[in-house]
User: Which sequence fits this backbone?
């Protein structure tokens, strides 16, 4: 099987394209997809009084998963390709979880296991089912490109980012993004005539589009939303301010043009550490003058202050020393300096900022070693007036 034919099935959890006339034993493998789930209760026997779960988790393309009720005689296992109930017809998916761990997954997804609206698993996929499925999956890329051309010809301000065919090739789901509301009634009629299937349009956000397309982040690794992140939390600029990040959209925005999700990862750690920090709005009164707040290094527990007469020079003062000075100011006392005279202040960090240093932060060559200029010998021009008379 060609590698190009295998790529459409990677988003469905298949490490290779399924072969209709062979046993599908090595099609599904763990860690081959984003939503891979490990049955960590596999070797633990459930209580005898607890009835066995008849619900299985089935995954489809990308992040689409759902729960289905299976008959006990099917004896499904992880990795089995099954035909499930759809509207209309049937769809083809891969079983990802079975047994008691499905109960915990239902609780996590807030799904009632006694719900009668859960769809059913018809059977394990037959040869004819897999043949239709493989044919439909291979047509998704060409369908997506063709649908983009049709949307462009209709002057619709939308972007079709992904197409998913149903397993029996009777319906196709078109995922699109748009800034405003789009009237795609004419588009649906044209697409139905062009591809001969039932059309369903689903609008997704910019983050969902980035998770489907994938890519490499600024950290050099694959995007979190395309590998393991399944729940999107809102990210605000307050989180960036808490971590003392520069509010530069080019640095804080990801490929989805939204704030990066990784800003939330360490935000709780910063909030816990900032609880012990003093109020930075108060000035520090010393005999050298009043010092105002400039910046904070949360992890090093240092607060930067600069004197009013020279605010460009910042002194990084420990948090305990700031508390001590504030306590002295409340008693109408002032220390000689920002630093304690009894301690060695040689290690105190001092930073001086100027417009030239700020421009170096965004320079592409800031890590390059400066090259020494080659000294060129200037040729002295000999003028007639400066020429020495030669002896005759």
Assistant:
């Amino acid at each position: 099987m060609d590698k190009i034919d295998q790529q459409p099935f990677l988003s469905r959890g298949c490490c290779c394209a399924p072969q209709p006339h062979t046993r599908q034993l090595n099609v599904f493998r763990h860690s081959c997809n984003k939503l891979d789930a490990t049955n960590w209760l596999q070797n633990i026997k459930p209580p005898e009084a607890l009835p066995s779960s008849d619900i299985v988790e089935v995954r489809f393309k990308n992040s689409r998963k759902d729960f289905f009720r299976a008959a006990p005689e099917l004896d499904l296992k992880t990795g089995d390709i099954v035909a499930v109930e759809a509207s209309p017809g049937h769809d083809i998916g891969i079983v990802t979880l079975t047994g008691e761990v499905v109960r915990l997954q239902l609780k996590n997804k807030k799904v009632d296991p006694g719900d009668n609206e859960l769809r059913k698993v018809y059977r394990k996929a037959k040869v004819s089912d897999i043949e239709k499925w493989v044919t439909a999956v291979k047509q998704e890329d060409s369908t997506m490109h063709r649908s983009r051309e049709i949307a462009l010809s209709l002057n619709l301000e939308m972007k079709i980012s992904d197409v998913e065919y149903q397993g029996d090739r009777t319906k196709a789901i078109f995922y699109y993004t748009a800034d405003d509301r789009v009237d795609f009634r004419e588009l649906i009629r044209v697409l139905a005539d062009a591809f001969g299937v039932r059309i369903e349009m689903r609008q997704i956000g910019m983050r969902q589009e980035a998770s489907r397309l994938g890519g490499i982040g600024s950290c050099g690794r694959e995007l979190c939303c395309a590998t393991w992140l399944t729940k999107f939390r809102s990210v605000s600029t307050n989180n960036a301010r808490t971590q003392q990040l520069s509010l530069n959209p080019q640095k804080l925005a990801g490929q989805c043009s939204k704030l990066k999700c990784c800003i939330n990862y360490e935000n709780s750690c910063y909030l816990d550490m900032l609880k012990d920090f003093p109020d930075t709005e108060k000035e520090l009164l010393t005999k050298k003058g009043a010092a105002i707040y400039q910046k904070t290094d949360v992890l090093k527990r240092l607060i930067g202050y600069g004197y009013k007469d020279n605010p460009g020079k910042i002194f990084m003062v420990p948090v305990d020393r700031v508390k001590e000075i504030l306590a002295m100011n409340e008693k109408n006392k002032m220390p000689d300096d920002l630093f304690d005279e009894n301690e060695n202040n040689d290690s105190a960090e001092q930073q001086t900022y100027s417009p030239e240093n700020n421009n170096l932060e965004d320079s592409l060559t800031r890590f390059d070693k400066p090259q020494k200029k080659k000294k060129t010998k200037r040729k002295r021009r000999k003028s007639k007036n400066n020429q020495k008379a030669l002896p005759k």
Notes: Residues 346-361 have pLDDT under 50 and may be disordered. The chain is about 25% helix and 20% strand.
